[in-house]
C-alpha cells in the first residue's frame, strides 16, 4: 500500500497517519536519500516482521528518488508519503496518480470576521435581513467556524451585562445547542445557523 498525503492541514493528516499506520511506525526523512536506498525501504524486511509501516517525509521533493517510484509500487509494506508540496505537473505524478491513493488535507478558508459580526448585529434587529446577508457569503465560509465567531460575540454581549443578561444567556444556550447539533446530527449546519439568526430578535 502506498498513499500520498499533502496539504496544509498537518493536524488532520497526522491523525489519518496514526489511524492507518498505528502508533508505532518508521519515519524516514527523504532529503538525503538516493536511488540505492529505495530497495531496502520498499522491499526490505526487518528481523521482527516482513511487512513494515513507514512514513516517508517529502519523498516527491527529492527528484532523484521520485523518478524511481513507479518501480516500487508493488511494495508489500504500508507506506505513506507526507508531502509539504506536491507538483502535479510532473511526468512521474501523471504516471502514478491512478496507481496510488493521493489525499489532500486542506485547512478551511480564513473566515471574514467583520462580516460575521455585521450579520450578528443585524440579526438582533432583523433576522430575515441577516439571513439574506448570510446567503451571499455562506458558500465561501465554514459553518462551524462561523458559529464559533457568533459564540465569541455573544459572550462579549453577556459579559457586558455583568453576567446578568437573560436574553444574552438564552442566546449562548441556543448557540451551544447548535454546536452540539452540528457535530451529532446530519442537519445542514447552515439551516441551524439561519434558524438561530431568525429567532435572535424574538
Task: Walk across the major sheet and give the strand order.
Answer: 2-3-4-1-5
Radius of gyration: 24 Å
Mean pLDDT: 91
Number of strands: 5
- Profile the largest sheet: 5 strands, parallel
List keywords for this structure.
202 residues, alpha/beta, 5-stranded parallel beta sheet, 9 helices, 5 strands, 48% helix
Descriptive report:
The chain is an alpha/beta fold. The chain contains nine helices and five strands, in the order E-H-E-H-E-H-E-H-E-H-H-H-H-H. Strands 2-3-4-1-5 form a five-stranded parallel sheet, with helices on one face. Strand 3, helix 3 (63-66) and strand 4 form a beta-alpha-beta unit.
Summarize the structure.
The chain has helices at residues 10-21, 38-42, 63-66, 91-96, 113-123, 127-137, 143-160, 166-184, 189-199; strands at 2-6, 26-29, 53-57, 78-83, 101-104. It is an alpha/beta fold and 202 residues long.
Write the layout of secondary structure elements.
Layout: E1 2-6, H1 10-21, E2 26-29, H2 38-42, E3 53-57, H3 63-66, E4 78-83, H4 91-96, E5 101-104, H5 113-123, H6 127-137, H7 143-160, H8 166-184, H9 189-199
Parallel strand pairs: 1-4, 1-5, 2-3, 3-4
Helix pairs in contact: 5-6, 5-7, 6-9, 7-8, 8-9
Amino acid at each position: 500500500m502506498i498513499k500520498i498525503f499533502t496539504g496544509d492541514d498537518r493536524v488532520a493528516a497526522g491523525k489519518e497517519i496514526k489511524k492507518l499506520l498505528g502508533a508505532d511506525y518508521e519515519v524516514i526523512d527523504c532529503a538525503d536519500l538516493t536511488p540505492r536506498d529505495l530497495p531496502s525501504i520498499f522491499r526490505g524486511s526487518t528481523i521482527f516482521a516482513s511487512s513494515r509501516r513507514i512514513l516517508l517525509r517529502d519523498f516527491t521533493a527529492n527528484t532523484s528518488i521520485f523518478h524511481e517510484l513507479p518501480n516500487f509500487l508493488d511494495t508489500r509494506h504500508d507506506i505513506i508519503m507526507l508531502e509539504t508540496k506536491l507538483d502535479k505537473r510532473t511526468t512521474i505524478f501523471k504516471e502514478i496518480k491512478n496507481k496510488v491513493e493521493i489525499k489532500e488535507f486542506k485547512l478551511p478558508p480564513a473566515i471574514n470576521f467583520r462580516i460575521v459580526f455585521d450579520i450578528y448585529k443585524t440579526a438582533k434587529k432583523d433576522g430575515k435581513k441577516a439571513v439574506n446577508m448570510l446567503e451571499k457569503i455562506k458558500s465561501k465560509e465554514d459553518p462551524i467556524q462561523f458559529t464559533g465567531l457568533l459564540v465569541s460575540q455573544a459572550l462579549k454581549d453577556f459579559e457586558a451585562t455583568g453576567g446578568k443578561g437573560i436574553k444574552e444567556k438564552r442566546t449562548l444556550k441556543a448557540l451551544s445547542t447548535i454546536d452540539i447539533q452540528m457535530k451529532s446530527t446530519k442537519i445542514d449546519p447552515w439551516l441551524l445557523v439561519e434558524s438561530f439568526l431568525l429567532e435572535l430578535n424574538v
